[in-house]
């Protein structure tokens, strides 16, 4: 398989994974009504996914290193369909619903570590930033497709049919991966490009690996605030009506479809010190958060925070590309560790942010995230990248 066809399939896989991930968020209204679930119980169902997902990042990456991305992604995608079927058949049993969502999180855990491992073996290092950026940007497409698609299907055939139909793309990509041979994905001439001359014999103990994971954990804390709280912040704090809140709430994700691949492209094409790209993205995000939190103008706040989200997500390509360079042949495991750090930050920030807002106010709570975004940029000053000769 040609490298960029591989990237296209990985991007399609990421989109399918997000359809299976967020479909319950849309179907939740009908599920709660029909199954008699309270908001608290439904929240537990949502959280069960993140528990399984975060806990299995490292094992998922290790499986990709051991068995190869095509085999792992193939079985994983088919498992998404099975977990969705389990959820549909669970009825009103909260235990069964929690188990189904946790199982989906476990099954989806290898997705991005395996994608990073496949890219590290199929593409040279000077193309990995844009390749990883395209794959991560595909989650925005999945997130954008899910609400109208699931809503359309629910109105006509109910939430159960909507969930199962939304898992069909996962079934398709699972079958596609099963038909691909490992050697077709990992050409011999590219396999040697996954080493980093600057890393020691044990790359997962290197200073660069630790700093990269620390920075990505902080980035995850900042990014997940906007995933869970941006719309509610606009409506409840900035007093947008529901329609305007929805319009401005979609702006960060529309911008991210451009900013994520652009950040990867700039990272690959920068002729001098490429660390300037993630440093600028993270620090710039902190500045925009601070301005958006402080301004009294609601529209300016919404635009600034939307650009802050786009900037904090623009560093996804540089993070994943650098991890494959640092981790070398253990790219799957290293990416799993890094992504687990991000998801731990994602577990903390949605719960901590409203607590901070209640005690010190929303402006101060967002200022904390602005400081953490700038702090996330600092470790890049000491992360060692491959020398120019490696390209």
Task: Provide a concise account of the structure shown.
This protein has 391 residues and is mainly alpha-helical. Helix content is 81%, strand content 0%.
Task: Explain what the structure shows.
The chain is an all-alpha fold and 391 residues long. The chain folds into 2 domains: 3-191, Up-down Bundle (Growth Hormone, Chain: A), CATH 1.20.1250.20; 198-383, Up-down Bundle (Growth Hormone, Chain: A), CATH 1.20.1250.20. Helix content is 81%, strand content 0%. The chain contains 17 helices and no strands. 57% of the residues are buried.
What's the layout of helices and strands?
Blueprint lengths: L2 H33 L3 H17 L1 H11 L1 H20 L5 H15 L2 H12 L5 H39 L1 H11 L3 H4 L2 H4 L15 H31 L4 H28 L6 H19 L3 H16 L2 H12 L3 H30 L1 H16 L14
Helix pairs in contact: 1-2, 1-4, 1-6, 1-7, 1-8, 2-5, 2-16, 3-4, 3-6, 3-16, 4-5, 4-6, 4-7, 4-8, 6-7, 6-15, 6-16, 7-12, 7-15, 11-12, 11-14, 11-15, 11-16, 11-17, 12-14, 12-15, 13-14, 13-17, 15-16, 16-17
- For the record, the count of structural domains works out to 2
Q: Class by helix and strand content?
A: mainly alpha
CATH class group of the largest domain: Mainly Alpha
The overall pLDDT, averaged over residues, is 86
CATH superfamily of the largest domain: MFS general substrate transporter like domains
Multimeric status of the protein: single chain
Radius of gyration: 20 Å
Give the number of helices. Answer: 17
In CATH, the architecture of the largest domain is: Up-down Bundle
Q: Low-confidence parts lasting 5 or more residues at pLDDT below 50?
A: 188-201
- What global shape is seen? globular
- Largest β sheet strand count, sense and barrel closure: none
Order of helices and strands: HHHHHHHHHHHHHHHHH
Instruction: Specify the helix fraction band.
Output: over 70%
- CATH fold naming of the largest domain: Growth Hormone, Chain: A
Number of strands: 0
Q: Roughly how many Å apart are the termini? A: 22 Å
């Amino acid at each position: 398989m040609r490298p960029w066809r591989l990237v296209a399939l990985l991007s399609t896989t990421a989109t399918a994974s997000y359809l299976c991930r967020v479909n319950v968020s849309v179907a939740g209204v009908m599920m709660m009504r029909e199954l008699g679930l309270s908001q608290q119980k439904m929240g537990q169902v949502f959280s069960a996914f993140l528990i399984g997902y975060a806990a299995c990042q490292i094992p998922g990456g290790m499986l990709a290193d051991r068995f190869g991305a095509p085999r792992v992604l193939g079985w994983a995608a088919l498992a998404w369909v099975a977990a969705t079927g389990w959820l549909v058949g669970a009825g009103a049993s909260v235990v069964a619903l929690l188990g189904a969502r946790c199982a989906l999180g476990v099954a989806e855990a290898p997705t991005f570590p395996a994608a990073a491992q496949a890219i590290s073996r199929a593409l040279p290092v000077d193309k990995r930033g844009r390749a990883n950026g395209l794959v991560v940007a595909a989650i925005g497409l999945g997130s954008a497709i899910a609400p109208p698609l699931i809503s359309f299907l629910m109105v006509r055939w109910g939430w159960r049919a909507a969930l199962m139909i939304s898992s069909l793309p996962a079934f398709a990509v699972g079958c596609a991966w099963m038909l691909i041979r490992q050697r077709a994905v990992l050409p011999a001439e590219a396999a040697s490009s996954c080493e980093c001359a600057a890393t020691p014999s044990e790359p997962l103990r290197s200073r660069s690996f630790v700093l990269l994971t620390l920075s990505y954990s902080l980035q995850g804390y900042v990014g997940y605030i906007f995933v869970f709280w941006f719309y509610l912040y606009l409506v409840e704090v900035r007093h947008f009506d529901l329609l305007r809140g929805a319009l401005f709430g979609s702006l960060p994700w529309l911008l991210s479809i451009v900013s994520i691949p652009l950040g990867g492209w700039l990272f690959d094409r920068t002729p001098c010190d490429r660390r300037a790209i993630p440093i600028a993205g993270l620090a710039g995000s902190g500045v925009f958060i601070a301005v958006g939190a402080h301004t009294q103008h609601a529209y300016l706040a919404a635009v600034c925070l939307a650009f802050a989200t786009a900037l904090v997500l623009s560093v996804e390509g540089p993070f994943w590309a650098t991890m494959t360079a640092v981790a070398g042949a253990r790219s799957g495991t290293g990416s799993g560790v890094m992504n687990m750090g991000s998801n731990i930050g994602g577990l903390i920030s949605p719960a901590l942010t409203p607590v901070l807002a209640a005690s010190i106010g929303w402006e101060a709570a967002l200022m904390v995230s602005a400081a953490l975004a700038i702090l996330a940029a600092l470790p890049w000053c000491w992360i060692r990248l491959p020398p120019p000769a490696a390209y």
